[in-house]
Structures are given as structure tokens and as C-alpha cells.
Amino acid sequence: MIFIVILVFLLYCTRFDNKFKIFMERFFKISFPLVLLALLTFCMPLYSQDEESGPFTVGADFYSSFIWRGTKLGTGPAVQPVLEYTSGPFTAGAWGSFDFRSYQETDLYFTFSFPAGFTLGITDYYLPDLKYFDYSRSTGSHAFELNLGFSKNNLSLNANYILNEAGGVGSCGNDLYFQAGYSFGSFRLFAGAGNGWLTYDPETGTSNFNICNAGIEISRTIKITDSFGIPVTGQLIFNPDKEQLFVVVGFTL
Q: What is the four-CA torsion angle of 125, 6, 240, 204, rounded to 10 degrees?
């Protein structure tokens, strides 16, 4: 029920008054880094230096190419590091993608987990090639996205809404993306649809809501020793909107 209510809210956001939209953009562009630092400060418990386990995790994914919601970003293999802090229901982190050529991305995010499998959070998409404090609509380097998720058993649902227009990173403002997935053990089916920067056509200047990310995913762990294995994932991804098909393989360390 909560998922449906917030879903309706995200759809209603596309009808926001212009002054309210400007207020939301200013609030998130000024407050997001401060809120993230404040939450880390007040939520962080004390740990001794010799404690082996703690609230911080670090890792990296390596993919043959970076396909995000059905769109290829960059021109080659990508390394995707992540730094994450978790305390109870709160998670904050930094995630990036770098292809050793021209594409770079650094995102900040935080989420709250609720009972019954719901999550609510926000993501700041940023490209390091652009000036960090550029929040203008024409050349802005940050796109702020509200994220709603639900996961139970083998089913996962996600709804996402972009709050602002930022020409530098390509967000149109009011961009929507919805995705559903279902797992059968190590085999997963997924399909997603959206508009805005996901389906924008520069030739016509239009962006229609359309299916842009559908496919299958197969995961397994390659055993190296009795106590260590490398998770490997393969994906076949089809974007009906852009009429493109991708095959991607990656592993996690």
C-alpha cells in the first residue's frame, strides 16, 4: 500500500507548480552533501582501530561495458568502485564508474530501509568532467533522483523520479523510471520503462515514456579456494526504445 501511495506521489510530481519545483531543486543542491555528512556523523557508532568488522564496506565491480537502464555509458570496460557505510536502517555511500578512456561518474546516495521490504532514498548523479558547484539548468553537473524500492522473496520493484533539469549530465527534469524484476535462483528476469534522459531523441527533441531496459541475468560464483570465490554476472539486455542489444559480463571483488 505504501509503495502505491508513493508511486502516485512520484507521478503527481510531474504536475508540480514551477515555484515549488525551483524550491525543491535549490533545497537538494544546497543541502544534499550537508545532510549526508550530518547523517554519517550522528549515525556513526564508535569502533576501536583493531576491530576487524565495522559499519564500512568497500568493493569494486568490473564490467565489459557499462549499461545503465538500457543505455550504454562510456566506450569500453568499466571499473565501478563503491564505498558504503551502514548503521541500522540507514545506508550512505559513494559509487563510481570509470572506463579508462573518457567516461567518469561519481554518485553519492543514501537510503533508509523500512519494514516489509521497502526502501526510500536519494541519489546525486555527478560527472567529474564538469564543475562540481554548477547547479544551473543549462550546464548543471548534478541530477538528483528520489528512489523508492520494494523487495520480497524473489520479487523486486523500483520507482525513480528526477527532481531537476541539469544539461551537463543530461537530465530533463521530471524524468521517470520504473523497473520490475523476478529471480529464479541464479536466473533473473527484469524489465524497465522510463522517459526523460533515458529516451530523449536529440533529432526530434522529444522523450516518450517507453520500455528501455529488458533482459535476463545469470549469476554464479567461481570458487577459487575453499574460503574464497568470485561472483560473476552475465546479462543480455535489450533496449526497444533505441533498438539496441547488449551482452555484458562482470565480476565483483
A: -70
Residue of 89 and 49 predicted with greater confidence: 89
Selection from 122, 157, 164 nearest residue 143 by Cα: 164
- What's the rounded Cα separation, in Å, for the pair 57 and 55? 7
CA dist., res. 136 & res. 191, Å (int): 32
Query: For residues 165 and 143, what is the distance between their CA atoms, to the nearest angstrom?
Result: 7
3-state secondary structure string, 17-39?
CHHHHHHHHHHHHHHHHHHHHHH
User: Which percentage of the chain shows pLDDT scores above 90?
Assistant: 75
The stretch 223-251 carries a mean pLDDT of 96
Relative to beta strand 244-252, strand 71-73 is unpaired
Of 200, 83, 181, 62, whose CA–CA distance to 143 is shortest?
A: 200
pLDDT tens for 160-182 read 999 999 999 999 999 999 999 99
Beta strand segments in 88-194, E: 90-98, 104-114, 118-126, 142-152, 155-162, 165-166, 171-172, 176-184, 187-194
SS3 call for 49: coil
pLDDT tier at 41, thresholds 50, 70, 90: low
Cβ–Cβ < 8 Å for 144, 137: no
Close Cβ partners of 65 (under 8 Å, ≥ 6 residues apart) = 72, 74, 76, 77, 78, 246, 248
Q: d(Cα 190, Cα 181) in Å, to the nearest integer?
A: 4
Rounded-to-integer distance, Cα 180 and Cα 3, Å: 13
Closest CA to 149 of 192, 212, 187, 199: 192
